[in-house]
Amino acid sequence: MASLKVKARVLKDVKIPNTEVFYGTTFKEWVADEKYYHHLIYFTTVMYNPNDGLIYCGLTAYDNDLLWTFDPETHQFSSCGYQSAGERFDVKIHRSLELARDGTIYGATACLHDLDQRAEAPGGKLFRYDPKTGKIEILAIPTPHDYIQTIALDDDRGILYGFTYPVWKLFRYDIGSNRTKDFGYIGTGPHIPAIDDQGCVWGAWKDMYRRRDNLLCYDPETDEVTYFDYGMPHMSPVDIGAVDSMLNGGDGYLYIGTSAGALCRLDPKTAEVVYLGKPDPALRMPGLILGKNGLLYCGTGAEGDSKLFAYDRESAKFIKLGRVYDPEINDSSFILHHITEADDGTIYTGETDNPRRSGYLWECKVKM
């Protein structure tokens, strides 16, 4: 029987007195309070780097210290020093770390400020980090005043794609020429996009009249965006079919987790969407990776009930691995926001939006 052995790894910790404080405090108030400014963090991106064996952690952090590493052997966290390159509105790396073949890491910064500060905030940064030298290089601000929720790297063509916020746009950034193409307003975006085997990037746009999220696809060869008139299957009357996670499965298909907690398969050649199942009654599937054993690992749930599942594509069955809960501290991941797998098969999950405390990095040892 499959199981999980879970350990919470704590970088910084501060308690929030009640949910009213969490949901009612503004960006300006968080940064003005010294304890929250330095210690209220969340793990919004996690990425294993096989070149050095470290887990790279993109944080929400009001003091701009956004990029850290975690060493699975020593259990030590180390800052990568993003503060030296960032500015005060760079407070999040949200689903935006990509490892290139040359060993460098590309990232992007997201925001939390309100619209009253939009004009003074310069915009989200695309940056490059060299793990060997520790150098951080700001590459571009692709869309001024808008910040970047998620990116995808086409290493073969030297292209970074991104989706912005609070004005939802799709952009293409060519690394070699340092040029950006802004495709304009699309109304929404995927929690994370994916690139198919032909080099096309897939995401989502908002059907404003029918109030649902639909698929879109950009082809770099034709330089055209295709807006599809449908998206993910809706699991309830209020489900808009939002894309919570997406990846290239290495078998010609893209796999998509929805905000309703369903797993779907997309054929990029035909744009056909097939519903594969919903492993848990809870909402959300923000964690989705291709395991080294060929299984798809899915992270689901919210409100302190995060779980991990595996999906076997051969048998078309889900395998429940367990809840992301550490019995030693009697606590669990509030929202499992992103997942990654180390070489030894350990899965690390990032936690966000906990209204009681800072987020933790969760170490999940899988036993099949």
Strand content: 35-45%
Count of alpha/pi helices: 3
- Spans of at least 5 consecutive residues whose pLDDT stays below 50 are none
CATH homologous superfamily designation = YVTN repeat-like/Quinoprotein amine dehydrogenase
Counted up, domains total 1
Extended strand count: 30
| Biggest sheet architecture | 4 strands, antiparallel
CATH fold category name: Methylamine Dehydrogenase, Chain H
CATH architecture: 7 Propeller
Report the structural category: mainly beta
Q: Can you give the mean pLDDT?
A: 97
User: Rg to the nearest angstrom?
Assistant: 19 Å
- Any idea of the CATH class? Mainly Beta
How far apart are the first and last residues' alpha carbons, in Å? 6 Å
Work out the helicity level: under 10%
Strand order of the largest sheet: 1-30-29-28
Give the overall shape.
globular
Short summary of the structure?
With 368 residues, this protein is mainly beta. It is built from three helices and 30 strands. The chain has one domain: 7 Propeller (Methylamine Dehydrogenase, Chain H).
Question: If you had to describe this structure to a student in words, what would you say it looks like?
Answer:
With 368 residues, the chain is mainly β. It has a single domain, classed as YVTN repeat-like/Quinoprotein amine dehydrogenase (Methylamine Dehydrogenase, Chain H). Helices cover 5% and strands 45% of the residues. The strands form 8 sheets. Strands 1-30-29-28 form a 4-stranded antiparallel β-sheet, with no helix packed on it. The longest helix is centred in the first third of the chain and has 6 residues, at 19-24. The protein is globular. The N and C termini lie close together (6 Å). The model has no long low-confidence stretch (mean pLDDT 97).
